Every structure is written in structure tokens, then in C-alpha cells.
Amino acid sequence: MAATQITLPAPAKLNLFLHITGRRPDGYHNLQTVFQFLDYGDTLKFHARDDEKFELIDETSHIPKSDNLVWKALTAIQGAYHDRSIRPLPAYTIELIKRLPQGAGLGGGSSNAATVLVGLNNLWGNRLCTAELEAIGRTLGADVPVFIHGQACFAEGIGDIFTDISPPTPFYLVIKPDASISTAALFSHPALQRDCTPVTAKNWQNEKVTNVFEPVVCDLHPEVAKLRRALLEYAPTRLTGSGACLFSEFETRQAAKEAQQHIPNGLCSFIAQGQNRSPLIQTLTQ
After folding, report:
1. How much helix, strand and coil, in percent to the nearest 5, is found in the chain?
2. Which tens digit of pLDDT belongs to each residue from 221-269?
């Protein structure tokens, strides 16, 4: 057995804005957004084994193995390697340590899947290129490819056509309201704006960009609207993804800490700095 263990981050992401510019013939929506990573997220540990069995240790998410994106990603990359007659594959126990709240718009599950794909590919000799990993990731979830891509980017299409950019990297206070939000219900909501004027990777920061899900979420979930109003007293605040997390932008960590002290008790929150290069890619290239 190779005496090895590797620990890799599965970072959170933020959507710095999110527009829908129209519907596609396949029923999906054309999106425009900016993805930026955070220096905060989940952790995955890959423990080498002396047999050919793979195991998953997940004591925090309570998601059944068959539905767990970590296990689905493992199965998918195993299939890709086997299709190339590359075997036997060194086996690992994958231990998932969750810190990100679920259903938060932070991409936690997608990031977990991407870390499995990128991490195992690295451990198995990098036989698959980034484009091949992104294609596998696309079968697992719309946000998986950006975590494999690993660079802050302006994204179009269904969120998988990337133009690399380098937006400012402020500190963010991220808060999870006590709300459960259905993304499918939001996409089908009649009040959702689907005709935003397109912006570009060069001019988006000079345009009045928004998150089109924010007004719908605030209307359906008064607790989110109330928290957003409170946070706006301290800093610019926006919904990420389809929610439920809100993020407020600060120039310093100390300013974010001071605002965090005013968050109602019982709500999950954390402070992180924006990262234009994914912590996953940073770790693997060190």
C-alpha cells in the first residue's frame, strides 16, 4: 500500500451577480454570473488503502451514500479510468468534513464532487485533462465544472462557459438565514426576471448588476428579506446563487467581525476572503 494521505479543500463560491438573459431551446436558462471562490469550505481527506475497496466516511452531511455527490463523483471518475482500461486503481477511503451549510447557494456539494474528481485524478497520475474532468463534472451538477476550472470567472451559457477575470478580493460576511429554498420552484416562479440585458466580462463591474433570484426569495421568505435589510445597514449585501445565503462585502476582516456581532443568535455565519484562484488548485500546485 502506498503510505499516503492527502488533505484537500473544497472551497465555497459566491455568485457576485446572477442574471438570466433568456430561455434556451432545451428548456434551460441562459445565465450570466461571476464566480469567485472563498478561503473557507469543506475538507476531504484521501486515506490510501491496501485493498481495492473504496469507502466514504461522512459523519456530518447525513446524505445517503447513493445520493452523496462525493460518492457519485468517485463512481464517475472510476468509470472514466476503466473506460481507458487503466486499472487496477489505487483505492482510498474518502473522509468528508463538512463546514458549509447545505442548501445555501455556496456550492458545497458541487465543490465536494470537484475535489474528488481533481484529487483522485492527481493521485492516479493526471491521466484526464481539465476539459475531460469538467465534462464529467457537468453530469453531476451545473456548478461542478467551475470548481474544476479553479479560476474566478465570468460565466455564461448554463454557467459553464468561462472567461477568466480577477475581481477585487474583499472580505465577506456570509450568513445562512433560517430558510429552506427550492431552486426548482424559483426557476419556475412567474416573477423571476428572465430578460436581463446582457453584460460582458469587461463591463459587468460598470453595470447595475443584481441577483435575479433575490427579490423572489425575499418575497417568498420574509426572514431572508428582514436579514438582508439589517445587513444593508453595515455593507452592500446580496444573495448568492439561488440562496439562501447572503453575503456582505467589507474592506477589512475586522469590519466584517464587527458586523457579525449583530447577527441574530442561532444563525450560521462565517467570514472569508475572496479568492481568484481556487484554494483547491493552490493546494495542489504548492
Report:
1. 30, 30, 40
2. 999 999 999 999 999 999 999 999 999 999 999 999 999 999 998 999 9
Measure the CA–CA gap between 255 and 260, rounded to whole angstroms. Answer: 9
CA distances from 251 to 12, 34, 149, 175 (A): 19, 19, 27, 17
Q: How far apart are CA 165 and CA 34, in angstroms?
A: 9
- Rounded Cα distance, 121 and 213, in Å: 35
Distance, CA of 265 to chain centre = 26
CA-nearest of 140, 91, 96, 144 to 120 is: 91
Q: b/e per residue, 146-174, with b = 16+ CB within 10 A?
A: bbbbbbbbbbbeebbebeebebebbbbbb
Please state whether beta strands 92-97 and 55-58 pair in parallel, antiparallel, or not at all (unpaired). Answer: parallel
| The pLDDT value given to residue 3 | 41
Contact criterion met (CB below 8 Å) for 262 and 230: yes
Cell of 44: 476531504
Instruction: Report whether the peptide linkage leading into residue 155 is cis, meaning its omega lies within 30 degrees of zero.
Output: no
Pair type for strands 246-250 and 171-176: antiparallel
CB count within 10 Å of CB 129 equals 10
Domains and CATH numbers, the chain: 5-165+276-285 (3.30.230.10), 171-275 (3.30.70.890)
Residues serving a catalytic function are 13, 143
Residues contacting 215, CB < 8 A, separation 6+: 191
Nearest to 14 by CA among 234, 175, 217: 175
Q: Under a CB-based contact definition with an 8 Å cutoff, are residues 174 and 12 in contact?
A: yes
